[in-house]
Amino acid sequence: MANEAAKTMLTYAGLKRYEEELHELKVVKRQEVAEKIKVAREQGDLSENADYDAAKEEQTEIEVRIAQLETLLKNAEVVKDDEYVAGKINVGCFVKLFDMEYDEEVEYHIVGSSEANSLEGKISNESPVGAALMGHTVNETIEVKLPDGGINEYKILDVRKIDD
Questions:
Q1: Contacting residues for 156 by C-beta, under 8 A, at least 6 apart
Q2: pTM (2 decimals)?
Q3: Across the 164 residues of the chain, what is the mean pLDDT of every consecutive 10-residue run?
Q4: When you count CB atoms within 10 A of the terminal residue's CB, does the N or C end of the chain come out lower?
């Protein structure tokens, strides 16, 4: 089993988003780039044809992304609703915390690593904060060991399932 790729945790919404992106790339984008290549070929000499080179580069980027998405989806493990235990933090939860160091409330969605986006408040279950939160409940205080060796403390204020 050493060759088997690691499972990627996804929320149902994340799964749908990746499936839609894959469908768009395969059905729409491939067609568009094929047309660009056809038009560029009709212009003649390909050795100095910038449109042809750009279209071929775009084609390569699309194929690479398709391969990435197919691998991700093949190895996806979707968090199921029946795995959710009310009030217990798991992938697919919304969490409100009190950050004791900065004396402020913060809110996160706990998602799989491929869905993480700090600008959207989505943190991975594998990140230092996400990993420390897993399995905990409201009113618990957790310590998070930071990469620089420091420790942050958070009090869990609210936990609920994300509505997909």
A1: 89, 95, 96, 97, 133, 136, 137, 138, 139, 140, 141, 142
A2: 0.67
A3: 64 90 95 93 81 92 94 86 70 93 94 91 93 94 90 94 60
A4: N
